[in-house]
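Write out the 3D structure for:
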Amino acid sequence: MRDRCIYCRSEGEAFVPNLGGWVCREHFMRYFYKRVSRVLRRLGRGRSVLVGVSGGKDSVAALYATADLSERYSLRVAGLMIDMGLNPECLEVYSEALEDLGVEGYLIRLEDLGMRIPRDPRAACLVCGTVTRYLLNRAARELGFEYAATGHNLDDMAYFAINNLITHNVWYLRYLDSVTPPVPGAKTVGRVRPLFWVGDSDSANFVRLRGARSCVTKCPHEGVDKQAVIKPLVARLVELWPQSEVNLVGSLRELARRAGLTADGGGDFRFCSRCGYPSRTEVCSFCRLAESMGGSVPERLPVVRVG
């Protein structure tokens, strides 16, 4: 049952867990854009951002919100879809978003690299994550963008923080931030998470109230890891104490900074002997994956202009 807006007492259109109440459409959009602006202002004016778009609600929300605020911060915004071949509807969603926003768009088909997503759930998640991180960073560099944006939201950040705490990977908390700077010497563009301060349901409500469309089909392998346990626990905390998730992420981010854990790209870099991009081993994980599938890594990615 809907309640009244906590700000103006008009009819509520969206429940915001981190506020603990309903808000009308006008106040929801203000809330959402304010939280995204909190991230984008850290970039500075005149930056270029390539938004990775899967077609799901989070990446669609990230593209729309960043594009909607691009004039305020003088941003050059474009989209990139990495087509895994899982859901044809997602490409339609992406094309519609590009047309609606009037922004440039790009597409990389995994099959053009001779690669595919495995059927085994655990292997699929590993491959999907490796492929997405590598291609988004490399495509951004080859297309001349300073930053790559992803649709990771506050719920994802809370899971990321808790997961690294319980697995004793405190070092990874250096990446618990909304913006990380480019490291040209390491062939790494900057990273930005426009949805860092908004939750999962906020993304869904934004897409709905913005009149956008997203893929309704979830990843076929969702729910096979610790997310299926940790995220419901965090949701219960937010239900009891609305500010708990924001405070959790903010506090751990502050602790990481005070401990000197920052993603500043310092130190020596090692590069893959195949593609020349950063790697912890002689051959990077992406190139190993490509070779194991009989694929290849070209000198320049097969990026197609769309929209």
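The radius of gyration is 19 Å.
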